Amino acid sequence: MAKRYSLIPIFILIISFYLIEAVFADEAKVIALDATGETAFIDAGLGTGIRKWMPVELYFKDARIAKLKVIDVFETVARIKPVDSTDSTFLRDGLIVKYHPDHSYPATRSPTGRFFDKYTHHSNHVEIELDSGITSYQVTGSKGESFYTTDTNYIDDVGVRLKDIEIAGADVEAYGSFRATDDRYLETTDEYLLEELWVRAKGFDYELHLGDVSTTFSRYTLSQSLKGIYFNKEVSESTDLEMIAGTTKHRWNDFWGEIEDEEWSRYVFGSRLSYEHSRDARFGLSIAETKDDRHGKSYAGNPLDCRVGGFDTNLSFFDKQLVMDGELAYSWTNTNTNNSANEYSSDWAGKLKTRIDFLRELSVIPGFGMAYEGLFERVGQNFSSASGWLKTDRAELYNKVLFSIYDVAKGYVGYRDYHDNLKKGLTRTTTFTVKEGGISYRPIPSRRKDLKVNVDFSQRDQDTTDKSEDHRTRTTRIQLWDKVGDLSVWGSYNNIFKEDATSTNYDRMINRMQFGLHGNIRRGMVCARPYLSFEVELDRDRPTEKTDLFQNYTIGSHWDFARVATLDMRYVFSDFEIPTVANADLTRKFAETEFKFRPFSDDLSREFGFLFRMNQTEDSDATADWTDKIFKLTYEETF
Q: How far apart are CA 480 and CA 168, in angstroms?
C-alpha cells in the first residue's frame, strides 16, 4: 500500500506594497486550470489589494515539490504557476494547496535582467520603481480662457526601496523617490525634484524614523507631516514615549532652493507620553513647540513662537455602553517676534465627546434601541496649536439622539449651537443654530431587503450682532436606494429654502433632483462596472422672479480583464442657463478614456497606459469658447 501524506496546513503570503504588509494564513483550492494545464486559478480569499506577484513554495510533507509564483489576483481568485517543478501536471482541479513562503526570494518579485546579479549580492533587498510618461496638451478657441497651453511635456518618477535589512538587531527600511518633469501643471517651479526620502529602523521596543515623518499626538497639540526625526520608545507594556522634531517645509527642494514669498521657516518640536491602563482606559500627555525662523529678514509678516501642552483621555464603561473622549490644552504664544518688545498671549481649548448606548433592548418594547451623542468644544481666540490648522475663537455644543426599531428603521434628531467672538475682540458676533432630524427605513423588509428610503430635514439659522448676514436655510431631502440583479439604483430630491431676516417669504428656492445607477457584473475573469447619473437643479430667485436651470449627466464604465488590462470611459455633459446674468449661459462637455494593460500575463511588473481627456466649454455669445485635449502615454515597471 502506498504511503499517504497530508499537506502542511499553512498558507502564508507576505506582501509589501507601499508600506502596507498583509499576512494570510489559510489553504486554497484549485478551481480552474488554463488551457496548458501549467497555471491554475485558486480561490484564496486574498482580496483586491495585491498588484505584484510573489514567489512561494508548495510543500508535500517535508519534501518540496515545486516553487510557485502568484501571477495575478482577481477579486478573491489568485493565479499561480510553477517555476521549477519537475512535474507541472500535479496541478489539478479541486486540489487543496497549502503554501510556505520562500524567504530566499524577494517579497514582491524577483529582479528582471541581470543588473542586480551583476552589481549586488542582495538583489532581494532592493526594489526600483519607474513611472514615465509623455503628455501632450492641445488648446483651441479662446486660448486665454483655458487653464492649459498647447505644449508637450515629459515626466519621470523613480523610486528606490531598500528593505529586509538587519543592522544591529533592527529591521531597516529606506525609500527615496525622484521626479524629473518640465510639466508646469505638475511642478510649478523645479524641473528636478526630490519627492520623498526616509529611513525607518524598528527594534524590539523602539522605532526610529528619519526624513519624511508624520505623526498625530492629539487634536490640539500636534498633527503634522514634517521633514525631520521621529522616535518611539516602549517604556513598558502599557507606556510609550514619542518624540519628534523637524520643519514644516513641504518639499525637499525648499532646503536648497529659493521659495517664492517665503518669510520664515517653521520648526516643530514635540513629545508625548501615552499610557494604556486597559482597552477601556487610555491617557496621553503631549507637549509641542513651534519656532519661526526669520533668516535675518525684515518684513511685515506675523511669525509666532508657540508652546502648547495638552492632556487627553479615552474612557469606556459598562461594556462600551458609555464612551468618553476628551482633551484639555493650554498654549503660550509670542505674537510679536518681529520686534524686540515681545508680546505674549495665552488661551485654552477643550472638548468632551460622549456616546451612550442605552435602552438597547427594552423589555416593554422589544427590538427598540437608543443612543445619545454629545459634543462640547471651546477653542479660545488666542489659542495656538502646533498643527497650525485649527480654527480658533469659537464654542460649540452638539446633541444627537439616535434610535432604531429592529432592522426596519433607524432615525435621529439633533441640535447644534455655535458662536464665535468669545473675548469680544471682533467687530461682531456670529451665532448659528442647527435643528435636524431624519429617518431611514425599509418599506417592504420581507420582500425587498435592498430597498431603503431615507428622509432628512434640517434648519440652519445664522444671526449676527450687526444684522448684516442674518439668514435661514431649510432643507428637506428624500433618498431611495434599491438593487435589481447586478444593478444598484438610487434617487434623491432636495428642496431648499433660503431667506434673509427681512423676508416674509423665501428669497431663493432650489429644487434638486438626482438619479443614478451602477452595476457590478462579473462574467468569468472579466468584470464590468457601468454607471450613470443624472441631475437637474432649478434655482428660483424671488426678487427677479427668474429661474436658473442646471442639468448634468454622467455616463461611464470600468472594465477589468483579469487584471491584465483595464479600461475606463467617462462622459459628462453640463448645461447652465442663468437668465439673471447677461451672457452667463454655459455648456460644458467632458470626456475621458484611460486604458492600461500588462503585455506579459505572467509578469505584472510592467504596465503601459494611454489617457485621452477632452474638456470643452461653449459660451452663450460664443466669445469665450475653448477646448482642451490631453493625450498621455505612460509606462510603469518595478525591477
A: 60
- ∠ CA 585-591-595, nearest 5°, is 170
Question: How many other CB atoms are found less than 10 A from the CB of residue 227?
Answer: 19
The percent of residues above 90 in pLDDT, for the chain, comes to 36
User: Which residues, in sequence order, are CB contacts of 639 under 8 Å at separation 6+?
Assistant: 111, 112, 113, 115, 116, 127, 128, 129, 130, 605
Strands of 359-424, DSSP E: 368-379, 394-405, 409-420
The whole-angstrom separation of Cα 586 and Cα 584 is: 6
**Region of poorest pLDDT, from 63-77, 411-425, 508-522:** 63-77
Average pLDDT over residues 211-235: 90
**In sequence order, which residues have a C-beta less than 8 Å from that of residue 88 and are 6 or more positions away?**
37, 38, 66, 82
Dihedral angle computed from the Cα positions of residues 178, 183, 186 and 187, in that order, rounded to the nearest 10 degrees? 60
Host H or E run for residue 588: strand 586-597
Q: How far is CA 619 from CA 553, 574, 591, in A?
A: 19, 12, 18
Q: Dihedrals φ, ψ of 115, to 5°?
A: -60, -50
C-alpha 612 chain-centroid distance: 25
Average pLDDT of span 181-197: 87
First to last CA, the chain: 49
Considering only CA atoms, give the Rg of the chain. Answer: 30
State the cell numbers at 216: 498625530
pTM metric for this prediction: 0.71
How far is residue 139 CA from its own chain's centroid? 32
Partners of 552 in the β-ladder: 535, 574
Element (H, E) at 119: helix 115-119
User: What is the distance between the alpha carbons of residues 310 and 283, in angstroms, rounded to a whole number?
Assistant: 11
DSSP assignment, residue 426?
S
The answer to whether the beta carbons of residues 583 and 620 sit under 8 Å apart is yes
Buried b (16+ CB within 10 A) or exposed e, 325-359: bebebbbbbbbbbbeeeeeebebbbbbebbbbbee
